[in-house]
Amino acid sequence: MQFVDLGGVAVHYDIDWAGENRPVVALVNSLGTDSRIWHHVIPKLAGDYTVLTYDKRGHGLSDLGNPPYSIGDLSGELASLLDHLGLSNVIVCGLSVGGLIAQGLYASRPDLVRALILSNTAHKIGTPQMWADRIGAVEQNGIASILEPVMQRWFTASFREPGNAAYKAYCNMLVRQPALGYSGTCAAISNADFTEEAARIAVPTLCIAGDQDGSTPPELVRSLADLIPGARYEVIEGTAHIPCIEAPGAYAALIRGFLEELES
C-alpha cells in the first residue's frame, strides 16, 4: 500500500510495475466500493501491463476530503495522482462512477489518456431527483437502509445466494463505506453529464456492459458507445453491475484483447 497527499487529501494507491515502456492501465472503482474490487483482475494483467489502482476520496483508505464532490474534483484527483507518478499515455478503465471520472479526465486532461475502457457506465447516470432521494435515505437512515436494492443492482441472483461468503463481504464493503463519502459521490454523479463531450472522444474506446446490470443496463451503456466515434461495445453474459467481481476472467480477457489491438 502507498499513500500520497493530493491537495490536502491523503489518497491510497497501489501500482504493479511491469517494466519500462510497458502500457499503464489505471483501474477506477465504482460508488460504494474500493480498490479491492479489482483483486481478481490485477493478476490477469500484471506482468504484461503496469496496473494502477487507488481509492477515490471518501472511499477505502483515502481521506474524506470536503464532500459533496463534483466529477471535476474526482477526475482532478486522478490527474494529480498520475502527475505525481509521472504517468501519461494511460489506458483508463473506469467502472460506473469510475467511467464518469474517466470521461472527466479525458475532457480536462486528454494528454494523460491513451485509451478509455468505460465499464457499466454512461454519459449520464440517473436523474437529479433519483440521486437526491438516495442521498436523503442515506442521511436519514444510513447506508444499511439501501443495502438490499443496491445489491440487487450490483450482482446477479446467483451471486447473491446466502451461502456465498464473497457476497456477504461485498455487503460489508458497502455498509462500512463512510456515509459522507457515499452521499458526496452521489452528488457528483447527479450533476455529471458528458453527452456533448462523448462525441468529442478521439481515443480508442471500449464500452463494457453486464447483461443483468440494474444500475447501468446494456442499452444505456450502448447509448454511450453510440455517441463515441468508433467505440467498441461488448456485453459480459451472466453479470450485473460489477463484472470484474462476478466474471474477472471474462472481464480481463476483454481488456487484454483491447490492449493487444492498441499495440498491434
TrEMBL record:
Enzyme's top EC category: hydrolase
**Is Hydrolase among this UniProt entry's keywords?**
yes
EC number(s) stated in the UniProt entry for this protein: 3.1.1.24
Q: Which protein, by its recorded name, is this? A: 3-oxoadipate enol-lactonase
Per the record, its GO cellular-component terms are:
membrane
Q: Which SUPFAM superfamilies match?
A: alpha/beta-Hydrolases
Which InterPro entries does the UniProt entry name for this protein? AB_hydrolase_1 (IPR000073), AB_hydrolase_fold (IPR029058), AB_hydrolase_sf (IPR050266), PcaD/CatD (IPR026968)
Q: Which UniProt keywords apply?
A: Hydrolase
Provide the GO biological process annotations: beta-ketoadipate pathway
Q: Which GO terms describe its molecular function?
A: 3-oxoadipate enol-lactonase activity
Domain AB hydrolase-1: start-end pairs? 27-253
| Lineage of source species | Bacteria, Pseudomonadati, Pseudomonadota, Alphaproteobacteria, Hyphomicrobiales
Source organism? Rhizobium soli
Pfam families in alphabetical order = Abhydrolase_6 (PF12697)
